[in-house]
């Protein structure tokens, strides 16, 4: 009897330990886990712009400005030089080798870009708080407005190229029937109606699953912009069961590449897939900017950017602005 009890006790402890480890290994966490991360001393990185950060953030969270603007080249939308990112991280005390939780506003794909950045530069303990500051405030938890700082550090960032797909690799992978390609852009971008590079369309054999499909309400952002809803609660992730249904047509053991316009929206979908147990997921780093602007790359539903028509529309818009300014000036006089 004692032996059976001891065995039961050992098995129970192992199960509890396994569950705790599984919870810690989840890339996407909830409010209770965010509180646990604070209690254990994790670095909390707020990736929003400085103004939003100073209006109220999770206590102790650090901020380097809006992550998409600070860490990327504004034209190519690729990372700035590694040594520049290293200097920014070191000044902020953002040690990628430590336990890190990244957050911003609910559903913002740039939060996932922040997580992807930590992992790309060698981090292995990073997690993401998807519902972010919105859920934190809704829970009535404390907010800090003063800037939080960490001691400066001296850490060398080492890129992990195996986590992403280059333009050259993508050209080869697109020809392979064994690679699953997910286009996380909008249906209009996918079909070529919305052109955001030299060409519109999509990579042949790619399937279109917009990253907003991961949300409980895929139209939440549109409804919010039109003031049809009062908050962004619809941007909360679907349940694990519903997410599994969304990607049920894909093989979790097969090579999977996700792309969008520049890799940001793709980072959200890639993280969701990994959380669902997909084992071989990568982000096509240059995404459509890299593919659509490469005239040697094959494009399905190919369209081209009409620069002349675009310039004409911009000129007409500027004329209307000038007319409105003149009318306003005349009224004030």
Task: Write up this protein.
The protein folds into two domains: 25-159, Oxidized Rhodanese, domain 1, CATH 3.40.250; 162-209 and 247-308, Oxidized Rhodanese, domain 1, CATH 3.40.250. With 333 residues, the chain is of the alpha/beta class. The strands form three sheets. A five-stranded parallel sheet has the order 5-10-9-6-8. Helix 6 (109-120) crosses helix 12. The chain is built from 14 helices and eleven strands. It has helices at 2-25, 31-39, 50-55, 67-70, 82-92, 109-120, 132-138, 167-173, 187-191, 220-225, 240-246, 264-275, 287-292, 307-332; strands at 28-29, 43-46, 100-103, 126-129, 164-165, 180-183, 199-202, 207-208, 256-259, 281-284, 300-304.
Number of domains: 2
Biggest beta sheet attributes: 5 strands, parallel
Task: For the record, give the distance between the C-alpha atoms at the N and C termini, rounded to a whole number.
Answer: 97 Å
Total helical elements: 14
Low-confidence stretches: 3-24
Which overall shape is indicated by the principal axes computed on the Cα atoms? Answer: globular
- Mean pLDDT comes to 90
Q: Would you identify the CATH architecture of the largest domain?
A: 3-Layer(aba) Sandwich
Q: How many beta-strand elements? A: 11
Radius of gyration from the alpha-carbon trace, in angstroms: 23 Å
The percentage of residues in β strands lies in 5-15%
Query: What is the percent of helical residues?
Result: 40-55%
- Class based on secondary structure composition and strand pairing: alpha/beta
The CATH class of the largest domain turns out to be: Alpha Beta
SSE string, helices as H and strands as E: HEHEHHHEHEHEHEHEEHHEHEHEH
CATH topology description of the largest domain: Oxidized Rhodanese, domain 1
Strand order of the largest sheet: 5-10-9-6-8
Relevant CATH superfamily of the largest domain: Rhodanese-like domain
């Amino acid at each position: 009897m004692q032996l059976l009890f001891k065995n039961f006790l050992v098995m129970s402890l192992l199960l509890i330990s396994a569950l705790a480890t599984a919870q810690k290994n989840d890339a996407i966490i909830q409010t209770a886990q965010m509180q646990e991360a604070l209690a254990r001393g994790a670095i909390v990185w707020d990736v929003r712009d400085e103004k939003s950060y100073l209006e109220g953030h999770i206590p102790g969270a650090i901020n380097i400005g809006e992550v998409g603007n600070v860490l990327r080249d504004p034209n190519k939308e690729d990372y700035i030089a590694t040594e520049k990112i290293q200097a920014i991280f070191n000044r902020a005390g953002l040690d990628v080798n430590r336990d890190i939780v990244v957050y911003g506003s609910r559903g913002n794909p740039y939060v996932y870009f922040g997580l992807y950045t930590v992992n790309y530069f060698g981090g292995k303990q990073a997690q993401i708080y998807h519902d972010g500051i919105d859920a934190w405030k809704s829970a009535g938890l404390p907010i800090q407005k003063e800037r939080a700082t960490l001691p400066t550090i001296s850490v060398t960032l080492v890129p992990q190229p195996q986590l992403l797909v280059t333009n050259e690799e993508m050209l080869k992978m697109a020809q392979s029937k064994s690679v699953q390609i997910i286009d996380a852009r909008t249906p209009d971008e996918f079909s070529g109606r919305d052109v955001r590079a030299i060409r519109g369309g999509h990579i042949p054999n790619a399937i279109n699953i917009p990253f907003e499909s991961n949300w409980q309400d895929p139209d939440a952002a549109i409804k919010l912009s039109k003031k049809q809803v009062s908050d962004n609660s619809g941007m909360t992730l679907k349940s694990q069961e519903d997410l599994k249904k969304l990607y049920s047509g894909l093989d979790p053991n097969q090579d999977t590449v996700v792309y969008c316009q520049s890799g940001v929206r793709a980072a959200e979908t890639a993280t969701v897939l990994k959380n669902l147990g997909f084992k071989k997921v990568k982000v096509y780093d240059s995404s459509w900017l890299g593919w659509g602007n490469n005239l040697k790359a094959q494009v399905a539903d190919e369209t081209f950017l009409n620069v002349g028509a675009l310039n004409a529309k911009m000129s007409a818009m500027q004329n209307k602005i000038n007319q409105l300014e003149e009318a306003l000036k005349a009224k004030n006089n």
